[in-house]
Structure formats: C-alpha cells, structure tokens
Design a protein that fits this description.
191 residues; mainly alpha; 8 helices
C-alpha cells in the first residue's frame, strides 16, 4: 500500500508543479484499499476496478482513491486517478463547480502532458485506447465525449507547441485551461 501512496503523491506533486497549483494536502493520504471503496460504490451498476470515490454524508465530503492490484504499476491509471483527485480538490477549495465530464477531459489532457514531459508520444493515449468492459451506456458516452474533446484539444496543442522550446508556452496555455470554467474550456477546445 505504501508504494501506491508514494506513486499517487509523486503524481500529485507533478500535477501541482505542471499547473502551478498550491496543494495544501498530500494526495497519497487519500489512498484507500479497493475493499473499502466497494462499500461506498453504487451496487446497482458496474464500477471501475480503480478510481476515485466521493461520498457526501451529513454535509461532509469523503474522498478516497483506490487502485486495483492490476493497476498499481500502471502510471497512466495512477496519473488519471490522481488527476481526478487533484482537480476535484482544487475546484472544491475555490467553491467552483466541476463535473465528471470535466474531470475526464482534464485527466486525458494530463496524460498528454505527462507523456510529452517523459519524451513519449503524447497522442498515443488517444490513438491506442481501449474501452473498459465495465462501462454502462451513460458512463461510456461520457468517456467517449471526454476522450474525443480532449483528443481534439491535445492534437491542437501538439501542432501549436511542436518543439521542446515551446514548453513554457504549452504550460502557460494549459494553466489557463485548468483554471477556466467548463464553458470556457469547451469554447477553447471547439475553436
């Protein structure tokens, strides 16, 4: 479990640095065991094997990030779930709305940025993607929309910021995007 907490903390620090976020929490502290997450997840539909759980009870929001054993060494999954946690917390701290669609779009953008920072193909996630078996129709539609929208935006970014020397411009653009309202994000992507 400690390895997962460290990996989530590293991913959280990387996201905070990339987006110039002041995080006043340690993302690794929110890691919970998958068995604990099962008690909080809806029982009337399939659930992801790794994910973020957010439950409000009595005016208190409880959040936990869980990773299935098969995903504990998958940096893409760790980054995606940590992205959800950081984005949700950042919006909550500012009392800003955030939707599941926005969380998914941001996670795809974060995967693009991370791959680029690591010298990997930043668009591979959009080109070699496989849908999970557990997705119900509503969830799959949200994921498909997020994936298509984020893919369009990231392809635009890849064309606009081609060279390694363009990194500061890319980060500046992505920091503005991160802080934009959901409506502004969509306008940015669709233009």
């Amino acid at each position: 479990m400690r390895d997962v907490e460290r990996a989530v903390s590293r991913a959280g620090r990387w996201l905070a640095s990339a987006y110039a976020l002041d995080l006043d929490f340690e993302p690794g502290d929110f890691v919970i065991r998958p068995e604990a997450a099962e008690h909080e997840l809806p029982r009337d539909r399939p659930n992801p094997r790794s994910g973020l759980v957010a439950v409000e009870k009595g005016g208190v929001l409880r959040i936990g990030l869980y990773l299935d054993e098969r995903d504990r060494d998958d940096m893409g999954t760790i980054l995606e779930e940590t992205s959800h946690l950081v984005c949700l917390a950042w919006h909550a701290e500012r009392d800003l709305p955030v939707s599941c669609l926005v969380l998914e779009i941001q996670a795809d953008v974060d995967r693009f940025l991370y791959a680029r920072a690591c010298g990997a193909d930043p668009l591979a996630h959009f080109e070699r993607f496989r849908w999970a078996d557990w997705l119900d129709d509503e969830t799959r539609a949200r994921y498909e929309t997020a994936h298509a929208v984020a893919g369009r935006y990231c392809r635009h970014l890849a064309r606009r910021f081609r060279r390694p020397s363009d990194t500061e411009g890319l980060l500046s653009e992505l920091r503005r995007f991160y802080r934009s309202s959901p409506q502004a994000k969509m306008r940015r992507i669709l233009h």
